[in-house]
Structure formats: C-alpha cells, structure tokens
Amino acid sequence: MPQTNARLTDLKWHKRQQTISLHFADGTEGTLPAEFLRVFSPSAEVRGHGGGEAMLVIGKEQVKIVAIEPVGRYAVKLVFDDGHDSGLYDWNTLHDFCLNKDAMWQRYNERMAAVGLSRAPAQVPKNLLIKDLLADNQTD
C-alpha cells in the first residue's frame, strides 16, 4: 500500500547518468532512471483519465530530464526532452516508485513484449518524407 505521508529528506539529480536519487525520512531510498520516471509519469496523459490500466509509453529508452522544478513542499515537476512536462511527482508517488521499481519495471517489460514493442526510440530514415507516410504505395 502506498505511503500517504512520505517525507523526502534528499533529492539529487545526476544529469550525466540521467537518474534521480531519493532519500526519505523512514529510511527508504532509491535511484530512479529518467526512462522509468517518464514511462510511469503520474500525469493523466499517461495514467489515463479513468480507472483502467495506464497507457503503454514506448520508445523512451534515451529520454532525458532537462529540468526539475519544485512544486511547494510536496512534489517536483520533471521536464523531459521529448516535451513531456505535465506530471507532478509528489513524495508519496516517488516513495512508492522506490519501493516497487523492480516489479513495476518487470510488468512494463512484459506488457511491451506482449505487444511486440520496444523501449528503443523508433528508427526513422532521415530521408523519409511526410508524403511517404501518407502514400498508399500505389503506382501510377
């Protein structure tokens, strides 16, 4: 069960490794990679607006955190280089992530494998044009 009053005592952003390290008053600590934080963003965009399973976020293996903004004394807003910036990571959520990271990551990878998707960003040829994506592959 997620803690409802987690108290963060330390947060460090390791830009080179693209991780954040967290320490909580109850002794819980953890290091969370940018990809994990992006994939499990607490935003409604990712978690969904209803009670169903969260959206499966793909291709974020190389995503980077570009900014961390404090939100009062209870959360941080993470800004990612793919433009995602709508999730508020409160201390309870981050505490839960630290406790459950391995199980969450395993479930995520199982979901990816089940539908044949990858963590790697899509490889799009540099010379691909929008009209090529829209074409019906018909010849004149």
Task: Write a compact overview of the structure shown.
The protein has helices at 34-39, 44-47, 91-114, 130-134, and strands spanning 8-14, 19-24, 29-33, 65-71, 75-80, 88-90.
Q: Helical residue percent? A: 25-40%
Shape, please? globular
> Taking strands numbered 1, 2, ... along the chain, how are they ordered across the largest sheet?
1-2-3
Query: What is the number of domains?
Result: 1
Task: Write down how many β-strands occur, each being a DSSP E stretch of 2 or more residues.
Answer: 6
> What is the CATH T-level topology?
NE0471 N-terminal domain-like
Cα distance spanning the termini: 62 Å
Describe, in plain words, how this protein is organized in 3D.
This protein is α+β, with helices and mostly antiparallel strands and 140 residues long. It has 4 helices and 6 strands. The protein has helices at 34-39, 44-47, 91-114, 130-134; strands at residues 8-14, 19-24, 29-33, 65-71, 75-80, 88-90. The model is unreliable at 128-140 (pLDDT under 50).
SSE layout:
Elements: E1 8-14, E2 19-24, E3 29-33, H1 34-39, H2 44-47, E4 65-71, E5 75-80, E6 88-90, H3 91-114, H4 130-134
Antiparallel strand pairs: 1-2, 2-3, 4-5, 5-6
Keywords:
single chain, 140 residues, NE0471 N-terminal domain-like
